[in-house]
């Protein structure tokens, strides 16, 4: 096993690698979610017509730079989220398992899922300001703008401007929706993964190995995206607002469905799927490699006494 610090670094590198590959789809997703906000279907102008069209027009008008807007925030967000998951998961799991079973080594799916969701929610809350700035950077476009156009030069410039104008409350705008979104996503991920794995083994006779992991995480990715997308759309819209278009995340949901129809909460779904599927698969396979490298590095360079402290 790598040390906790080592696991944190290895996990961070893997997550950032996956983010780099999938960030373009995230940009398209946000623009799709925001376009036509609170307009009836007939009135809404469709500047972006879908995932591939979105990638194409952004590339044509803004170049690669347009697709990668907000990537610095995306990295920081991933590192913070990853850190909270690593830091809170085990203590929460151990505490609960000891309370319920009197033995911290018992593995209970229910408790594991709960601990995963709780540590994810804590991470989402801590890192929300970065997701906020990311959303605003990604919706900015000098050619086909959707959403409020904020002129932030980069993440820190964005954070500074929000703090100066609106104070800490401004930085935590939309944090409720962000917590719900991540809570939904994290709680279905593990159970659907194991469920898919069992079915694949039982019905298709698949065996333990990379192919089974790939198939199970793809199946789980579909479900995660279905559950997580509606609160994700609400979150994007809460992050866009600077005035007070919506009183709360729930108000946003009601107004969205009322004016744009039920399917509005699934705007940008395919772009989200295009991000989530490769993200999950890449994170898992990259993490295996970076963990291996980290272990080799630690074996070679760290003394035993130092390893115990990290
Ligand atoms: C974004 O937020 C502003 C209010 O701050 C609102 O006027 C606008 O309709 C929202 N959505 C879009 C797509 O611009």
Automatic annotation (TrEMBL):
Could you state one GO cellular component term attached to this entry? mitochondrial inner membrane
Please verify whether the record's keywords include Transport.
Answer: yes
Pfam families in alphabetical order: Mito_carr
Please provide the record's keywords in A-Z order: Membrane, Mitochondrion, Mitochondrion inner membrane, Repeat, Transmembrane, Transmembrane helix, Transport
Instruction: Tell me what topology the record assigns in the membrane.
Output: Multi-pass membrane protein
The record's subcellular locations are: Mitochondrion inner membrane
The record's section on PROSITE patterns has:
SOLCAR
Question: Which InterPro entries does the record associate with it?
Answer: MCP_dom_sf, MCP_transmembrane, Mito_Carrier_Antiporter
Q: Where are the Solcar repeats?
A: 2-95, 107-199, 208-293
* Family that this chain belongs to: Belongs to the mitochondrial carrier (TC 2.A.29) family.
Name assigned to this protein? Mitochondrial oxaloacetate carrier protein
**High-level lineage:** Eukaryota, Fungi, Dikarya, Ascomycota, Pezizomycotina
